[in-house]
Amino acid sequence: MAKTALIIDDSLTFRQMVVMALTDAKFTVIEACNGQDALDKLKGARVDIIISDVNMPVMDGITFVKTARAQPQLKKTPILMLTTESQPEMKQQGKAAGATGWIVKPFKAAHLIQVVSDLLP
Hints:
The protein is an alpha/beta fold. The protein is built from five helices and five strands.
């Protein structure tokens, strides 16, 4: 059975790049343009991994992670931050919120797939 990933990014271009990499790796992909959109799309859906940007309108990635971790069905779902933010303080905020991993943009598709594979059982 194919794994399902939720991609959250306000940049259509970056979402398309991630979708392309993941579909090549045989993932089913759900797209969201911000944290609130992602929460709406998660209602009734089951995902194996979530990949989120940090800086987005409506609901940023850190707030999304905190909100997602408060939901019992998402407590153990890996959440990978894929962002331009590289400062240690921001990474620490993500970790404190419950992020599982952190990749800085720009990214290589092979590296993303390797990290995603490492995070999944």
